[in-house]
Amino acid sequence: MRIDVLTIFPNMFQGPLQESILKKAQEKGIITVNTVDIRSFSEDKHKRVDDYPFGGGVGMVMKPEPIFAAWEAVHGSVPSAKTRTILLCPQGEVFSQRKAEELAELDHLILICGHYEGVDERVRDHLVDEELSIGDYILTGGELPAMVVIDAVARLLPGVLGTYSSAEQDSFSDGLLEYPQYTRPREFRGWQVPEVLLSGNHRQISIWRRQQSLLRTKKRRPDLLKSAQLSAEDLELLNKTE
Ligand code: 9D3
């Protein structure tokens, strides 16, 4: 997969892309991430990328010309690719695991990072296929959201994660929160690891974990519990709260 990121802050991407799994995914050639500095496409003598809003109002609006020029420089760079152009902006549809799975099927993503108070509407109308937000809180720009999308999509591509983690991902799809996990030592500052996990009784362990997942989801994310597929045993585990 090729990912082009159109941004006025290309340096923001260097940290996250040069560590850990995203670094490996690039080294393995599974993803290629190319940041494009929108400012370098400004024809303005001051290299301006924003301007005052027509009609007045506070803040600045990102100009269309440098964004269109930057897009034209990368669009078509993957021949016959399934390509999608996505604008990261607060008005977008909220990004989800389902959306990450959908995007992981494509060959070429072009991510445009919004900034200032907004982006000229002609970018949305004539360049962008889809707008995404990462949630209901206000950030300073679309760069961190673009990194979130890259991270969530990249880990789904074949070969990025080990087989163990990929299988684990399937179990997450039951839509419950994870159970509590422990490692050595058995006692830390007087706090014990739950006895059942040391018992060697694998049936009891998996029942305990399932119950913990259910109870935790009920308490913290009742919205998830409503859409989860629960068995008769699950309902029993939820009701017998010791
Ligand atoms: C004055 C109205 N604001 C819209 C809610 C203006 C505004 C605030 C913040 C315009 C742009 C931004 C910068 N944020 C993003 O570009 C952004 C974002 C976000 O702030 N939250 C969650 N997801 C995203 S995706 C892009």
Question: Can you walk me through this structure?
Answer:
The protein has 2 domains: 2-154, SPOUT methyltransferase, trefoil knot domain (Alpha/beta knot, 3-Layer(aba) Sandwich), CATH 3.40.1280.10; 170-240, tRNA(m1g37)methyltransferase, domain 2 (Trp Operon Repressor, Chain A). The protein has a 5-stranded parallel sheet. The chain has a 3-stranded mixed sheet with strand order 3-4-7. It is of the alpha/beta class and 242 residues long. The termini are far apart. It contains 10 helices and 10 strands. It has helices at 14-17, 20-27, 64-74, 97-103, 121-126, 143-154, 163-172, 202-220, 222-227, 232-239, and strands at 2-7, 32-37, 50-51, 61-62, 83-94, 108-113, 118-119, 130-133, 187-188, 191-192. The structure holds ligand 9D3. The site of ligand 9D3 has 16 residues, from β5.
